[in-house]
Amino acid sequence: MKYIQDSELLEKIIQQYHVEEMFDQTKQLPFTLQQYTPDEIILLEGMEMQSLLFLVEGKVRITSSIATGRSLLLRFIHPFSIIGDIELIRDVPVQSQVQAVNECLLIGLPFDYIKQYEIDNPKFLHTLLEHVCYKLQTCTTASRVNLLASVENKFASYLMSTISAEPNNNFGIELTTSNIKEMANLLGTTYRHLNRVIHSLTQKNIIERDKNSIRILNWDDLDKASNGIRYK
Amino acid sequence: MKYIQDSELLEKIIQQYHVEEMFDQTKQLPFTLQQYTPDEIILLEGMEMQSLLFLVEGKVRITSSIATGRSLLLRFIHPFSIIGDIELIRDVPVQSQVQAVNECLLIGLPFDYIKQYEIDNPKFLHTLLEHVCYKLQTCTTASRVNLLASVENKFASYLMSTISAEPNNNFGIELTTSNIKEMANLLGTTYRHLNRVIHSLTQKNIIERDKNSIRILNWDDLDKASNGIRYK
DNA sequence: TAATGAAAAGGACATATGTCCCAAAAAGGA
DNA sequence: TCCTTTTTGGGACATATGTCCTTTTCATTA
């Protein structure tokens, strides 16, 4: 993570997302601007959280670890999103693992500051409420989805989500195989089984696989294979 | 549903749960007091919601329908709980089906009133936020659970939850078999499979089944069979 | 280059669960 | 009471997925 000292950029972003409308005193809020590289971990489950974060650029993956050391993909988030709402309100440690998918820009605002100056500001509270309610609604949907979706559905959806975030969409898209194990974990399945699914999609000419890449041959069919599942 | 006209009881409940601390003007809030009978449906998915509800007595089941007409048990709630938060904040139709497990008492407060007088009240907003955050945290946990729990786990847990809410816990507990289909739906499985699971638990002498009842023979083993799953 | 060891892929089998359908049982009606 | 219809239970099989272990591939070192 790299702190960026660029008050002009910060100001621009604040304008863009109407951040100032959320707070009482618009100027001199102790914001930090943070940049993360692809795959960099932003928050680890269990750590104490110090700042509320606003995702303003890039795409972020939210996962949750389960007993066996595996992890489960909860959702992807995009700008403008709030990270740390539960932790701020309920005073609990970080609930999920948060990781940058591509290059990301986040704004941070210390909990201490919020608790001192903004915690009773209705505008701020409304913003929080709306975001948390949205997440709850999404999570409920996801619960349902988990009962309907096969690994193939989820993998197809995951592939599309991850790849469409890549900038180099020139002619066929690459994806290293080195992280197939990680993908299996994210989808809540085993390496063995994901391999089976990849094999099956390859047979159907929906994706193509060689040494170090997976390439999508047929987006339409991949979309069908996802069966409408979306990690929005 | 029966409206109860008993301002004394209402007052007592308001005191008990410190409801007045949540609102600005403590007196003359247009509360209604509503009573539901066991298994009565409180809210149907998709309907327009008019009042925020507070569960103050009894136990309520929250479910969500999925494509195939099946439904999925989301959670049980107990006093003091808020029903309708997402609907109030996001202005969406009722998201889940809400049904009384036993005799329930709820307080209602019209959305109109809230939007007019309380929507910017920080105390009220805090209460809402806390409850929604709690639900979100629970839902995330449940998502994980759904990936770990077998139907046997869920059924064992469900049985214990439902039965412990019954008052007549004298010597062995009864449960009509007529609703096994409904239970299967609630657990997100088929009648056929739930039958298998019941059969298996019967074989192990954990439960006993005759014409019209299921009786728990061994709570400890049933608890083990639930594998720690709790629909709190 | 050949031997060795680590990483990746895949075969074989087990389990949980869904689907389909038939048989047993219960409920009604003549 | 006996026959018909409906309801309930369960057999048989299919599919998705997990576990375990062997084979294959690939890189590394003598």
Descriptive labels:
five-stranded antiparallel sheet, Crp/Fnr family transcriptional regulator (chains A, B), DNA-binding, elongated, WH_DNA-bd_sf (chains A, B), Arc Repressor Mutant, subunit A, four-stranded antiparallel sheet, homodimer, Jelly Rolls, cNMP-bd_dom (chains A, B), activator (chains A, B), 8 helices, 232 residues, alpha+beta
How does this structure look, described?
- Two copies of one chain form a homodimer.
- With 232 residues, the first copy, chain A, is an alpha+beta fold.
- The first copy, chain A, folds into two domains: 2-147, Jelly Rolls, CATH 2.60.120.10; 150-226, Winged helix-like DNA-binding domain superfamily/Winged helix DNA-binding domain (Arc Repressor Mutant, subunit A), CATH 1.10.10.
- In chain A, 40% of the residues lie in helices and 22% in strands.
- Chain A contains eight helices and eleven strands.
- The first copy, chain A, has helices at residues 7-16, 85-90, 111-118, 122-148, 151-164, 180-186, 191-203, 219-226; strands at residues 2-3, 32-36, 41-43, 51-57, 60-65, 71-77, 81-83, 97-100, 104-110, 207-210, 213-216.
- In chain A, strands 1-2-9-4-7 form a five-stranded antiparallel beta sheet.
- In chain A, α5 crosses α8 (219-226) and α6 packs across α7 (191-203).
- The first copy, chain A, is elongated.
- Chain A binds chain B through residues 64, 66-67, 72, 74, 85-86, 89-90, 92, 95-96, 119-122, 125-126, 128-130, 132-137, 139-140, 142-144, 146-148, 188, and chain B through 64, 66-67, 72, 74, 85-86, 89-90, 92, 95-96, 119-122, 125-126, 128-130, 132-137, 139-140, 142-144, 146-148, 188.
- Chains A, B: One of its GO terms (molecular function) is DNA-binding transcription factor activity.
- Chains A, B: Keywords: Activator, DNA-binding, Transcription, Transcription regulation.
